[in-house]
Amino acid sequence: MQGSPTPLSVLGSQADTERQRIRQQFETGTSARETLRALCELADRNVQQIFDEVLRVQSREPQGLCLLALGGYGRRMLFPYSDLDILFLLGNERIEQESRPLISEFSRTLWDIGFRVSSAGRTLEECKRIEEDNAEFHLALLDRRFLAGDAALFDKLDTKVLPASEKQARPFLLAQIHRLTRERLMRYGNTIFHLEPNVKESPGGMRDYQAAIWLRQIVDERKGIRNITAAEEELSAAAVDFLSAIRCFLHYSNGRNDNTLTYELQAAAAERGLGVGDGVARTPAEWMRQYFRHARTLNRQLLRYLEQKAPMPLTLRQRFFNAARAAKSEPGDDKFFAVRDGLLEVLDQPVLSDRAVTYSLFAEAARTGTPLSREAERSIGYILTHPELPPKNTEIPWATLREILSSDYPGVALRSMQRLGLLTEILPEFGMIDSLVVRDFYHRYTVDEHSLRTIEHLQELAEPPDERGAHFGPLWKTAERRDLLILTLLLHDVGKGMSVENHVTGGLTALASAAKRLNLSSEEKEEVHFLIEHHLDMSATVQRRDIFDPATVSAFAQSVTTLERLQRLCLLTYADIHSVNPEALTPWKAEMLWQLFVATSNHFSRTLDRDRLHAPDEGSLLERVQALAGDTTLEEIERFLEGFPRRYLAVHSAAEIAAHLALYQKLGTDPVQTELLATRHGFSLTLLAADRPALFATISGVLTGWGMNINKAD
Description:
Helix content is 57%, strand content 6%. The chain is α+β, with helices and mostly antiparallel strands. The strands form three sheets. It has a four-stranded mixed sheet with strand order 3-2-1-4, sandwiched between helices. Helix 9 (206-218) packs parallel to helix 12, helix 11 packs across helix 12 and helix 16 (398-405) crosses helix 21 (482-491). The protein starts with 10 loop residues before the first helix and ends in a 9-residue tail after the last helix.
């Protein structure tokens, strides 16, 4: 290209000078939107000038050849170190052959002056054919934009060729968007709450926005994809501006196309108040909460679009629940929801102003594992923020929350409740860790995301996804008072959001306020208190002690006190480790955790007859029982309890002991006393009778003969 009247030799320095000016303006307050526009205009000018010069030097006319911008460049969202995605559109194969030297020279020159180029050549006929093994190219064509060359050729592609082929290939393109998006979301754990997110690829990043735009371009909204409101459009635009500012900042800070928001860069961005508007410095934790709020907006919009065209897959158990119900319901008669495509849909939005109705929907989700659709969440969210109807029953009673927490799929309901802000309304303590980033090179997720994942990992144990959960599945299925275990998981790390040295201490403080507000019984509070206080003990024992040493097992058993607590603590530890990051729960750790559970369980069985209580030593317990036992004297209570296994006091509350004492006192009038109580999964039978050989075997045989399944005997 020697002798050219256009001084291409100085284009590189001119482009560098312009890039530096754009960067300085961004760093002194110019918006990301203006920065991207300026970078795009700079690229357009150089592309057009170099293309014209290459044509002149090679004595070519532009007929039958034009340049298109694709992808982010086509959308005019060109970030500082992003590639220029350029398509050479050629009229036919002959022109393609003749243009190869031109394409090579054009691309080389752009690289020489500092542009990163990703170019490809296609004939008009090739663009018309939809290639199943090259879906990304056809999706990139959705963002096509004319740059230079034969405008008539571009017009033919833009108005005739592609509209016809895209309409015909709409099902294929939709399927590819769904496949590529689901694969990407799965790579990042299907969550926006990463401690160091990739603002381009992570859920809630710019890829989510791009996929949503593609879906809206391809799908006829009258046939399924419902548009977003003006308010939602405004939130989406604000989210894009915020993430665009971050991505520009990351490119400039790293000097390359690196989109990972590291701890160090979070602190730097927070110090600048980047993207917030007022430019006032924030703490990194406060600033990251802004990031997650915007990421949630983009991710929620994308998932709503995906859901309307591709329902979420269900487990066998969930499909069983859905098959047992009517496919459709009609509003009225308390049937305000329907199950459609494996999702709970709201049929009667006004009834949601009664918060009790809303919570009954969450209870249904927790019971069956059927998630609320994004449209259902949207309806609830509208009611919560636009109370045209006076809200009713705004406080959730512990009985209702307990129903949700004790179900087979509590995480399904809690996820929706968190997205809608209802979880922090019920448990303000959980709000202290909402979107909280704590620097930890071992953990991968925010504190609240970690906590919710612990619950989801437990509910997966109904159908263990891999061998690590095989041992623990039966523990989950038979666990008593799951509600207390799940409440523990929600509270066990909230101390990380408090100004305390030890997050366990903070968790216990949070429990005190939550227990009072929820009106927990003293026994319920005591159990959750134990689990929070000791939630690290089992993991520490596995990793720091010899679990095959009888002394270690004995000491651990003394701290746990009962098999029921051991079971809950084991499940808590399994879920806690599993939720740190996908690789944290190695098969070795899972096996060691199980071995400690088995050894401790066996220890309880061996010492059951050896550890007996001496009733006079249990003064405070005797007083509590006496307060519930009417006119019964302390001496009578002592005689009843003397010689019982010490485990009896650990597994039964004072109220239960008083009830057993009342049955015991009736033995004089009737030699057999029974009490049958309904529980969540069946019945609890208490039977008192004089001992004799084979008594327990006889009782078990009778119950089995009646078709009863004995889950537990004590």
